[in-house]
Amino acid sequence: MTDTTQFAGKTVIVTGAAGGLGRAFAEGFAARGANIVVADMNEAGAQETVALVEKTGAKAIAVTTNVTEKASTDALMDAALAAFGSIDVVINNAALYATINRAPFYELDPDEWDRVMAVNVKGAWLVAASAFPKMTQATGRIINIASATVFSGSPLWMHYVASKGAMIGMTRVMAREVGKTGVTVNAIAPGFTLTEASMSVMDDAETYGVSSRAIPRASQPGDMVGTALFLASEDASYITGQTIVVDGGKQFI
Ligand SMILES: NC(=O)c1ccc[n+]([C@@H]2O[C@H](COP(=O)([O-])OP(=O)(O)OC[C@H]3O[C@@H](n4cnc5c(N)ncnc54)[C@H](O)[C@@H]3O)[C@@H](O)[C@H]2O)c1
């Protein structure tokens, strides 16, 4: 049964929460009583997420954020503190994904490489860098959304795969650097999951990869939420620097 007070009084910032996985994280924490900060460049989508969160009875604000700019990620933290008084959990979920140009590595456009790295790698770093000094030190949580594709290596996506591999390395460094404070830093590596974004890149999205999973069904955004709730909980206070693959048992690492 859902404990609707588990995260009462805690503030959860979810970047890239205008839809997809980010919205599922926002709704999952809201259902357990957290205050939600929806950070995205997509203002309309962010407001829709706020409305969905408010339906659960939780509080939420949308903060228009460009994760590639430090001034913007700093302003995000200030807005969260002004609205709710603490920063307890940060979910680094914003990324360029479905809209990236794909090509073999020997034909990838260097500008496209830089564009992906700016959001997926630099953006995740800036959000964590802006958050850490202001977050609740003894129990704070940073959760980075990587991808299981790091362990399989999807052809034509090398810039995206590299960006998600970087996130796993960054998770380990951040975990070591802040471990003494009590803040933990972990990553979730989702397998292919049905979101508006992912469905736009696959014609066979509903069945893609399903037969190679130990649990042979399509992955829904809600399938990622339980791992984030656990990593954010007191029960996970001794787990840090880890990457948990959530893909129905396709990759075993
Ligand atoms: N859906 C999948 O199959 C899948 C699998 C593995 C990992 N992931 C990861 O999960 C996360 C969410 O994926 P999704 O499928 O929900 O995709 P999505 O495109 O719906 O979510 C990404 C969000 O990031 C936002 N964003 C992009 N650039 C931004 C910027 N500069 N500043 C702020 N926000 C920005 C977008 O507006 C969007 O709302 C991503 O990190 C993605 O790489 C997804």
Walk me through the structure.
With 253 residues, the chain is an alpha/beta fold. It has a single domain (11-246), classed as Rossmann fold. 37% of the residues lie in helices and 14% in strands. It contains seven helices and seven strands. The protein has helices spanning 20-30, 43-55, 70-84, 110-131, 158-178, 196-199, 225-232, and strands at residues 11-15, 35-40, 60-64, 89-92, 141-145, 184-190, 243-246. The chain has a seven-stranded parallel beta sheet, sandwiched between helices. The two termini are 31 Å apart. The structure holds nicotinamide-adenine-dinucleotide. The site of nicotinamide-adenine-dinucleotide has 31 residues, from helix 1, helix 4 and helix 6. Nicotinamide-adenine-dinucleotide is lined by residues 15-16, 18-22, 40-42, 45, 65-68, 93-98, 119, 123, 145, 147, 190, 192-193, 195, 197-198.
What layout of secondary structure does this protein have?
Elements: E1 11-15, H1 20-30, E2 35-40, H2 43-55, E3 60-64, H3 70-84, E4 89-92, H4 110-131, E5 141-145, H5 158-178, E6 184-190, H6 196-199, H7 225-232, E7 243-246
Parallel strand pairs: 1-2, 1-4, 2-3, 4-5, 5-6, 6-7
The structure holds nicotinamide-adenine-dinucleotide.
The site of nicotinamide-adenine-dinucleotide (NAD) has 31 residues, from helix 1, helix 4 and helix 6.
